[in-house]
Amino acid sequence: MATFTLLLELAWRNLWRNWRRTLILLLAVGVGVWSLTSSSALMQAWSASSLNAGLRNMTGQGQIHATGYRDDPSVTHRMPMPSGRLLHLLDDAKVAHWAPRVSVPAVIQSEYETYPVTLTGIVPARERGLSFIADTISRGHYLKGADDSGLLLGRKLAARLHTALGRRVVLMSQGAGGALAERGFRVVGIFSSNPDNETNLVFTGLATSQAMLGLHGTITGVSFNLHDIAGLNGYIGDLRAAAPQLDIQPWSTLLPLVDAITKLSDSFVWIWLAIMFALLAFGIVNTLLMSLFERTRELGLLQALGLKPRLIFLQVLLETVLLVGIGVAVGLLAGGATIYAFHGGLDLGFLAAGAQWLGAGQVLYPRFVAGEFFGTGLLIWVLGVGASLWPAWRTVRKTPIDAINRTT
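Above: the chain sequence. Below: its structure as tokens.
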């Protein structure tokens, strides 16, 4: 123990022989760890924001449709209301929300303009917590029930149609029999969401849309959320076994862009880790080689006086352990401070429009995940110490006489 303590003291003093070089490497390690932890938290926040926005954007964690509906979203491809085993699974305790819908292409006409939209019939109570509709009503009121004959319009669509609350509009779409179905609606609410939703979606009660289209109790799909999304794949398998004739898909199939962003977020951490390790390894190896080259005669003299090569190896290793450890600690402190500074939300400001186009929200919420945070620091520390093994091994291979006679 006394030998180890002595070697540790020697390693600490050797670090500060050239304090400028040591500080530069400490700064490099600290900046690398800070950039990795903070950028990882931001990427995960972006991924979570994109996923949350995508799931609330009428998608949910999964959807059930008649076969062919996703290719041709019309009343031709409709399905009966869930029943039997399928209904039992949808009512399971693991399901947080599920909602039946009628969603078809339509044309909306006001006194001044005509515009293509997607008409969606909903059960208002079931959409709460599942979609954005109930939380984004900015004027007027939300639908009161499945038989509500009022209409919800997006803010941008209302402006394009030159209509407003209390005004009447006409909706036209293909009915169940193939003939044109049309009906007049009174605007009862205006919602504010992302530009695509505001322009393209209109909502009315489910029973009202069924009566208009002549669907006689059938629907075009079901959307659902689980309490724990980690169990989604198994649940999808159960649904497919209960209703093999239906098209049942998870959010990753329905939202390929969001799925790509999620995978990109995970890949980014490993790519950035590889880049940081390559740069840090180069800096650590270079610094150690320079330091050991300057101390070649000294180390040779220590061997001649009886210090065993393994102890010299341990001393060099301890120098790296201290150097990288301090740098990692500084980087973790800076990374933790950065995450904490934006814990209440990072407003993207003028970048918000681009973020929404990519499916993310205007505000990102970086989160401190202790396991990943400290695991990143530990991994950098282990890799940094590993990079020092070659310089340390190279040093102890020299014979004392060669080291002492080497001119510097």
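The mean pLDDT is 84.
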